[in-house]
Amino acid sequence: MKARPAIVLSSGGLDSTTCLAIARAEGFAPIYSMSFDYGQRHRHELTAAASIANLFQVAEHRVIRIDLRQFGRSALTDDIAVPKDRSESAMSADIPITYVPARNTIFLSFALAWAETLGSQDIFIGVNALDYSGYPDCRPEFVAAFEQTARLGTTRTKFTIHAPLVKLTKAQIIRCGTELGVDYAMTHSCYDPDELGRACGRCDSCLLRKKGFAEAGIADPTRYR
């Protein structure tokens, strides 16, 4: 069987872990995973990503260290309070302060560089344009534009960015992952966990996660404080 190497951007969260399961189910192999230590306050996600990579037995898991704190202007990298207890309408009204400027553009650029050295034409990213917090770099238009840029700017003329979750609700994502055997207890989504890694249950990410499990009719295995 011809090798189909792929890179999965892995945050340790629910969406990226589902992407990892999808890539495996679609026959991509070997699979590589890439996480980023970018100065985020919710660093428990890196521990989760490493455990998930080990469970999925990826060929290699890399943690790229960059410091986005030097730019700030995000509640995830700066001394800005993480919004809590917001309604869905408030979440989608404007770009939230948890948006990290150009984060997915930066992450995909690193993954693209690694893909060239691996001879891979495929990268998976768990962006979502339905149950999400209004980030501009989670839209299908962004994914398509970056894919075209990658084909023009590298040797990988058939390069593809796979965003299998982009038009799914959180409930649909959870059902899909559950069918593929994902253990969501291993994943971490919270923007403001405590020192033990327990989720706050009140930030946008936690609220969307709770909503997803409730609508999917599946028990939420998250440890909340």
Would you give an account of this structure?
- With 225 residues, the protein is of the alpha/beta class.
- Helix content is 37%, strand content 10%.
- It has helices at residues 14-25, 44-56, 88-93, 103-118, 140-153, 170-179, 204-216, and strands at residues 6-9, 31-37, 60-65, 122-124, 160-162.
- Strands 3-2-1-4-5 form a five-stranded parallel β-sheet, sandwiched between helices.
- Helix 5 links the parallel strand 4 (122-124) and strand 5.
- Helix 1 (14-25) crosses helix 6 and helix 6 packs across helix 7.
- The protein starts with 5 loop residues before the first strand and ends in a 9-residue tail after the last helix.
Summary, kept brief:
This protein has helices at 14-25, 44-56, 88-93, 103-118, 140-153, 170-179, 204-216, and strands at residues 6-9, 31-37, 60-65, 122-124, 160-162. The chain is α/β, with parallel strands linked by helices and 225 residues long.
